[in-house]
Amino acid sequence: MKYLGIDIGSTTIKGCVLDSARGAVENVRSRPFPEPIAGIPSGRFEVDPEAAVEAVRELLVELSKSVERCEGVFFCSQMGGLVLTDADNRPLSNYISWRDQRSLEPYNQGDFSFLESLRSRIDPTDFARIGAELAAGSELSLVFWLAATDALPRAGAFALNLGDYVVARLCDATPKTEFTLALGAVDLTTRNRPYAMYRRLGLDHVGRPAIVDYSIPAGSISLGGRSIPCFPAVGDHQAALLGAGATEGELSINISTGSQVAMIEREPRLGNYQTRCFFNGWYLNTITHLPAGRSLTGLIDLLCELAIADGKTIDDPWSIVDRAAARVGETEVDVSLAFFAGPTGNRGHIKNLRLENLTIGDLFRAAFKNMVDNYERFANRLSPDRDWNGIVLSGSAPRRLRTLTRMIEERFELPTRIAEATEETLTGLLNLAIDYRRKHDGDRL
């Protein structure tokens, strides 16, 4: 049985055929994610949501022509952000992305930001119950900003994730939110919306979709003359971990543009980290936004500036820095990759330089050590008893930066594997399709 899979990413929108019988991701296609709207204030990041809908629709039509019989469509989506709609799914706003920083602006021209003001109003118990999720581009922080600036309709407005909006528009159906996409918007102790918290914040007049399991269709779309069920979009983080084959007891380290450490749990275990819903009633403890590829790219861009200014290009700088770092043992160079706001701060540094260690190898060996230090520090926060039985590495970096991979394995002294899937989110959707088919066939029996 074949399904279609769509990953609504921040850079590209990918689509593929999911062959649940063969366990294969096939015919991967992509479209660029729509460009942000120009001319808006600095720090704000908005996108035309209908442009995302049309890009997904084009991919689905194209992919459907390669499948004789499609049984359904599975989606995953970037998390955070929102689209405001009316009761008929018509947009009342652009898609305000998870990358939007307006909630960091001063609140009422004071010393505190909108985000800090919101956080001060949330009871610690409520904060723990929503998984300690409250970032600048989160749905809740954006709704608070809109309400505080009188940019929110007084009644009849609904706050949707981008994935929820896209699926609802494609299917002309009432929006639904899957548990894994309800980031900071589900009470983990009741597995329902945190309605009491919304009332205490004065934000309960904003509607939100019902929360459902991934296996409950959100609607249907006509493709090739057939009505095809569409399943609610799931969180791309959880889809990627599912595609990487992460299991209970395993420490997952994802290394891409940013990094996350995570562990899958059977029951919600709340603590000084983020807790998210996972699939089939399980949970995910995680710490996100650790510096990784984005910061490393900043260093590479700096080193390549002279060549670029001279009209030259370096075909594969990553292999160069990996080999250079491998040739260096211990180094006195001290690097912090915290060039962007996150759990490790918002200011990085390069210290302890001498002429003898002012080399690419020393620089990147120190940068990799900083990453490994961060992984160990925050993994210990997830599990102070260090009760991991192994490590799974996922994302684009572990295969490219083998020196970094070896340093992680040496530090943790545990069996370490690199996820086999190269398209982790799409493979996660494949696993959902296989799981759905198994459950569906069992019900029919």
Put the structure in a nutshell.
By secondary structure, the protein is an alpha/beta fold.
Structural notes for this entry:
- It is a single chain.
- The protein is of the alpha/beta class and 445 residues long.
- It is built from 13 helices and 21 strands.
- 34% of the residues lie in helices and 23% in strands.
Annotation keywords:
445 residues, alpha/beta, 2 domains, five-stranded mixed beta sheet, 21 strands, 34% helix, globular
CATH topology of the largest domain: Nucleotidyltransferase, domain 5
Q: What is the strand arrangement across the widest sheet? A: 16-17-15-14-20-21
Overall geometric form: globular
Average of the residue pLDDT scores: 94
Overall radius of gyration = 22 Å
Largest sheet: 6 strands, mixed
CATH superfamily of the largest domain: ATPase, nucleotide binding domain
Structural class category: alpha/beta
Q: What are the segments in which pLDDT stays under 50 over at least 5 consecutive residues?
A: none
Roughly what percent helix? 25-40%
> Counting H and I runs of at least 4 residues, what is the number of helices?
13
CATH architectural grouping of the largest domain: 2-Layer Sandwich
CATH C-level label of the largest domain: Alpha Beta
